[in-house]
Design goal:
It is built from 4 helices and no strands. It is mostly helical. It has a domain of about 40 residues.
Length: about 140
């Protein structure tokens, strides 16, 4: 008899695999059975794991040498928190703007960026107006 298959949006987690004290960013490919694809930890490097798996490392158990360096994003630049939601606040526009941006918290940065985005420099306004007029002329 045929069984009716019902698709589901779910992530299966093998609870028989105990958590590890020293997680490996490459999960199962690095011998860490508690890592991706058996669940998804915040520190799992899913891009590097996926690239290796697509190129055959999941079948052979051997990392593909050409992809050994991965995307070179091996850790998060902001430490994970100790309580929910665990991840840092999203970056704001002032991140990576040099020494003057250091020491500001996310709330200050968000307020500054919102205020700054409301004010437009005259050259930007003129450029946008010119582009709008050009588009109107082309479309008409």
């Amino acid at each position: 008899p045929l069984r009716k298959i019902v698709p589901a949006e779910e992530l299966r987690l093998n609870m028989a695999v105990p958590p590890t004290a020293k997680p490996q960013r490459l999960g199962v490919l690095a011998g860490d059975l508690a890592g991706f694809p058996n669940g998804r930890r915040l520190a799992d490097d899913v891009i590097d794991i996926s690239l290796q798996a697509v190129e055959g490392a999941a079948q052979t158990g051997v990392l593909v040498p050409a992809l050994a360096d991965g995307d070179k994003v091996d850790t998060n630049e902001v430490p994970f928190g100790t309580s929910f939601p665990y991840v840092a606040l999203p970056h704001t526009k002032n991140v990576n703007r040099g020494p003057g941006a250091a020491g500001r918290n996310a709330e200050q940065s968000s307020t500054e960026n919102t205020a700054a985005s409301r004010a437009m420099e005259p050259t930007h306004a003129a450029a946008l107006a010119g582009a709008g007029a050009l588009l109107l002329g082309v479309g008409g």
